Amino acid sequence: MGVRMNYIDSGIKLISEIKKFGYDAYLIGGCVRDYLLDISCNDIDITTSMPLDELKTKFSFIDNGSNYLSITIKFEGINFEITHFRKDISYIDHRHPIVEEVNNLYDDTIRRDFTINALAFDYTKKIIDYHNGIDDLKNKLIRAIGDPYLRFEEDALRILRALHFSSKLNFEIEKNTLDALKAKSYLLSSLSNERIFDYFVKICEAKYSLGIDYIKKYDLFRYIPDFNDWLNATGFGYTKEELVYGYYLKYHKYPPIISNKEKKFCISLLELVNNNFDDYSLYKNKETVYKLSKFIERLNVNVKDLKKKIMDMPIQSDNDLAVTKLEMTEGFEGEMKSAVINEVIKAILKRKIKNERVEIINFIEGFNYAK
Fold first, then answer.
1. Residue ranges of the alpha helices (H) in 21-147?
2. Banded model confidence at residue 370, pLDDT cuts 50, 70, 90
3. How far apart are the C-alpha atoms of 301 and 192, rounded to whole Å?
4. If you ran DSSP here, which 8-state letter would residue 53 be given?
5. For the chain, how are helix, strand and coil distributed in percent, rounded to 5?
6. pLDDT tens across 277-291, in order?
7. C-alpha distances out from residue 251 to 93, 198, 234, 248, Å
């Protein structure tokens, strides 16, 4: 609660400072909504009539959104996104608005997505509510501002945002908004995989399953089949990492969004699974066991036992071998070099031989004889 209050209180101080310069300013959006719901929030948005150029002369700033009449102000060690009162005059590609300045809060709120996200605080913490957002908070409803069909047509990401807020807050989507969302779900195909993935993760990681319930009930992902498949392989309660590895194990191919590091863990995880987490695969993939413990537990595997097996191994790495790899492979060529090393390690792990120089050399002699 203390951290949440510090952010809100610092935001109130900042808009009070702006007020002293003769301009209006308000905390708006998610921070107000979450404050009223007693949910922690450290992302504070402010809207104001103060020109950006003047804001830059009064406060420390980061100019990271001037095209959208927005900058970031650093105040009391906190970053605040501050946007001039604005309205959207048109949209490009169902996503990006063309904006122009307006001179009042009401016109600014009309452009926002949902009633519960258009609530504002003035410098006295008085609530400004032009769209009955308080009633929707009380009734636990996600309701679009204005014409919901137009809201989703303007910005297809609002479809995913509605599903996210439904999951985050355990709010139902109001009937007209839901009808529009279903009708406009084809617009999801206009979004980049990266943007879809951002909200896909939020929906899956959320406290409640309502968003996923809506997706499945109304087949909302049918126009983004890769993510429909992904949802079928994973689902509610999966973390970002678990979503990636769940998809890979289900389909044996990489999901639409994945990092190079995650690709390596995918291959390592599949090796562990294919070898039933035997000693040798555990030895080679220890990092994966520790990194992906939670996901491995989803496979009904006792990770505690795996970790104990790893800790009890006679060797923990190739550096522990009593004979160097160079010595082991002397006299062997090509693929036989790696085969000899692997067989030595397997023999030690299975305790067929001890990790002692004489025993390893004698074991290798068997390979020389076979050769």
1. 30-36, 52-58, 105-110, 133-139
2. very low
3. 36
4. H
5. 55, 15, 30
6. 999 999 999 999 999
7. 32, 21, 11, 5
